[in-house]
Amino acid sequence: MSEGIISEGIDAEPAGTGAPAPAELSEEAARSRASVLRSRAESYMALSRHDAAIADLTEAVALDPDSARAWRLRGESHRLVERYDAALTDFDQALRLEPDSAYALGSRGQVYAALGRPEEALTDFDHALTLTPESFWVLEGKADALADLGRMEDALDVHARMIALNEDQAYPWLARAELYQRFQLYAEAIDDYTRALGVDPGYVRALSRRGEAYRMIDRFDEALADLTRAIELDPDNDRALGSRGAVLSELGDDEGALRDLDRAIELDPDYVWAFRVRGEILQDLDRHEEAVADFTRALRLEFGDS
Questions:
Q1: Which of 20, 23, 66, 109 sits in a 20 to 30 Å window from 170, CA-based?
Q2: How does pLDDT run across 28-86, given as a tens digit for each residue?
Q3: What does the pLDDT read at residue 23?
Q4: CA dist., res. 297 & res. 281, Å (int)
């Protein structure tokens, strides 16, 4: 159990009658109830039921406001549902209570990164890494923050450390490949995707991303092979379908391209890039009313046009 055995013999509200008010509970009973609520919240989080987790944790912090764990868990639930201001407030409180919580520091760093505040994110990631130097997810957060700041060489140094710690796994190679691809270094990205696929030949994300990298340097046959394999393994992969649609268009198969793009948009009605590509294909086919509709949808999604 995560918090030890809950004390027996404490007067508790019978099931089904609603939560007792904090003033009705003894201090010991309040701590006990808060403990159960925190534990239940963790299971809700594992089930991605974050609103339920937040409700439990809100009661838990009211009952036991000195529990850094409750504040940290609620901050994480808020982060996962993109309520970033609330997440920051919770992580700040968790860190006031427990200043050297690597988890809270790393998670707050992720919030700062999501808010476009990479300098503050980097400060939190660096502090967390003084406490847990080999924490992979914190290292990845640091690398992303460095990339956001345009410090590519420093980001690559962090990725090299991640690979050294886990070189027999596929993901570290993919993570560095995506950094290379972000900076349009497609040959380097392809090499790392290939290393990832050497470890795990069925790694759909690596196949899809390598296919996209091949597309960007006009190696369309290789792109088509990778993207088709990714779709065979994951038929509802909207990004692979969108990319393959673009490749098929480049290879002169506009009808096949439209089928893939239609399916990609069906899977993700907010897929801006797919609307743009489909609009361009429809325009080339002189289907201008449909093209206008796709471009209008893309503008609405990306820029809020009415």
A1: 109
A2: 999 999 999 999 999 999 999 999 999 999 999 999 999 999 999 999 999 999 999 99
A3: 64
A4: 15
Q: Maximum distance among all alpha carbons in the chain?
A: 78
Instruction: Please state, in angstroms and rounded to a whole number, the distance separating the CA atoms of residues 173 and 168.
Output: 9
Instruction: Determine how many CB atoms are found less than 10 A away from the CB of residue 241.
Output: 27
How many Å apart are CA 273 and CA 217, to the nearest integer? Answer: 18
**pLDDT tens profile 7-22:** 333 333 333 336 666 6
Instruction: Classify burial at 4, counting beta carbons within 10 Å of its beta carbon; exposed 0-12, middle 13-18, buried 19 or more.
Output: exposed
Distant-in-sequence, close-in-space partners of 246: CB < 8 Å, separation ≥ 6: 215, 257, 277
The rounded radius of gyration (Å) of the Cα atoms in the chain is 24
pTM across the whole model: 0.87
Please provide the size of the chain in residues: 306
CA–CA separation, 76 vs 111, rounded Å?
A: 9
Residues 6+ apart with CB under 8 A from 13: 19, 20
Cβ atoms of residues 248 and 224 within 8 Å: yes
Start-to-end CA distance of the chain, whole Å, equals 53
DSSP secondary structure letter of residue 22: G
- 130, 249, 262, 277, 279 from 284: Cα distances, Å: 56, 10, 17, 11, 9
DSSP H helices in the chain:
27-46, 50-63, 68-80, 84-97, 102-114, 118-131, 136-148, 152-165, 170-182, 186-199, 204-216, 220-233, 238-250, 254-267, 272-284, 288-303
C-alpha 78/C-alpha 13 separation (Å) is: 28
Structure tokens at 280: 């361009």
